[in-house]
Amino acid sequence: MFAIESDALSKVYKSGVFRRQEVPALTGFSIQVETGQIFSLLGPNGAGKTTFIKMLLSLAAPTSGSASVLGRRLPDVRVREKVGYLPENHRYPGYLTGEQVLRYFGALGGAPSGALPARISSLMELVGISQWRKMKVKKYSKGMMQRLGLAQALINDPEIIFLDEPTDGVDPVGRKEIREILRDLKRRGKTIFLNSHLLSEVELVSDRVAVLDKGHLLKVGTVDELTATGQAYVIGITGTLPEPVTVAARAFVIALSQQGENVTAECRTTAELNRVIDLLRRNNVEITSVTRARSTLEDSFISLITGEAHP
Amino acid sequence: MKIITLIRWTVRELAAKATLYVLAGISTLMLLFAALAMGTDSTSDGTTITFFGKPASPPVTHEALADLAGKIEAGFAGGLFLGIVVFGVFGTAGVITDALEKGTVDLYLSKPIARWELLLGKYLGSVAAIFLNILYFIGGLWLIVGAKVGVWNIPFLLSSFLLTYVFAALYAIVTFFGVVSRNMAIAIIGGILYFMLIAGPLEGRQTGLYLLSESGVYRGILDGLYYIFPQIPAMESGAIHLISGEQAQVTPFVQSFLSGGGILGVAAWLLQRRDF
Lengths: 311, 276
Ligand SMILES: Nc1ncnc2c1ncn2[C@@H]1O[C@H](COP(=O)(O)OP(=O)(O)OP(=O)(O)O)[C@@H](O)[C@H]1O
Ligand SMILES: [Mg+2]
Known about the structure:
Chain A contains ten helices and 14 strands. By secondary structure, chain A is of the alpha/beta class. In chain A, 43% of the residues are buried. Chain B starts with a helix and ends with a helix. The A-B interface holds A 13, 54, 57-61, 77-78, 80-81, 83-85, 87-93, 95, 104-105, 107-110, 152, 162 and B 2, 5-6, 9, 12-13, 16-17, 98, 101-114, 273, 275-276.
């Protein structure tokens, strides 16, 4: 059984006056997330990441397609007894203290009130906000809010935890702590679904990654599979690359882009790199340097996205 | 029960806001005024109620004194009701719109609660908070009149429920506007304008709006509207009548229950269809 499964899930938002304007947020999205994995959905702003989670939690209704969570076909309220959610830009009633937020939302999640105080203490300890437990959340800093949000997502001891940009606004030490928490949850058999555009974050913890852009799934695989697509080389040149050269090179390399006087070419083999260099030389482009860039998930992410943007 | 949790925490939410304290503050001043000012004056002809020693009427018999006390209580209740409409709606409209705000609604709805449950819990939470306010004032005044005048007017005490009921009917409209607009100002304006510009004129349509046209269709529409929306003024005067020991009609209360329930139902249906 998959923890999360979606089949050709699509969402078209209707907005504007008389709901005449249509925004396709997600198109034919099919993925499977295995139980006990950390799965990340990666994509630029507006790709449809949040929309996907919202449909799984019945916050938005799918336009077409279907999905199931924990083996239950959606929509099904009972699913939400077993999931935790850290929404992006989450806001709590400001008059509550951190501790009260956990008590309130814990009770709404169905936690037995007797067990709550002990669980709240240990969770606040875990996410590092114990010293602010009695402070009103309207005085919380962004990072503190994010930590509280994580504790809130965990309050009902969920089987699946949906985290939408969990490290947004958290300092580097905090990010590392959150990664540790995620790994620990995974060790305890929980499934974690992460949304992020912070690629370096995802790379360190994810078992599998899906790359999404403009509502379309571009790629799914392990971090290794995604980064093993090619080797990026940075070719220093003077001036800008003529457009026909860019087009010609893109015909055979995985991706090619220029930032200032650096051309980044993602090639499958060194022969391909040499073809690029030949092409540049034939077109009188002056090469000043060639270096091998370590291909990170970030690079393949960007090349996937830009490759899509300029086919 | 999730809905009980929602109600309890909504009352807490309102206890943390200033607006309802204004109402409670005004209530307290009125109660102090009543406690200080009210007294009785007995002569061989009978007894009367006094304010700062000034008799409110010529001395009357014991039964008539109870009537007089009822009339005074009814006057206070009418004043209280206006306060509830203004400060109560101002103070509680945000309960609905805050819960539906982006970032907050996601949290609520990711929990195993249905949308109608969230709406009903928030609605009843506000009504419960207003009930506490009403009970404080009515209960306080009931004690003062009882202690000072010796008239223990049970219908007056029970009118706490009726006045809460009237507020609840009005609050269904505030909730509706809150759900549709997700904007506190619009929810408040919707509720207050309904009370002032629609409910009142519809109630008095026979001596007002009817005169604009003789057309049967026009008058039929007015009557239809009157029976579709909660009859706030009719219920308010019904409650006042009961306090002063007179008869009151039941129909406005039944009609408003159906109407308010229908409006809440439409609001819940709209909420159910929405994408967040
Ligand atoms: N409630 C809504 N009504 C109309 N359009 C919406 C709504 N929510 C999202 N959209 C649109 O759907 C698209 C996808 O949005 P979504 O929030 O899923 O992106 P995202 O990948 O989470 O982006 P980000 O990284 O910025 O959070 C966007 O074009 C957005 O404008
Ligand atoms: Mg998002």
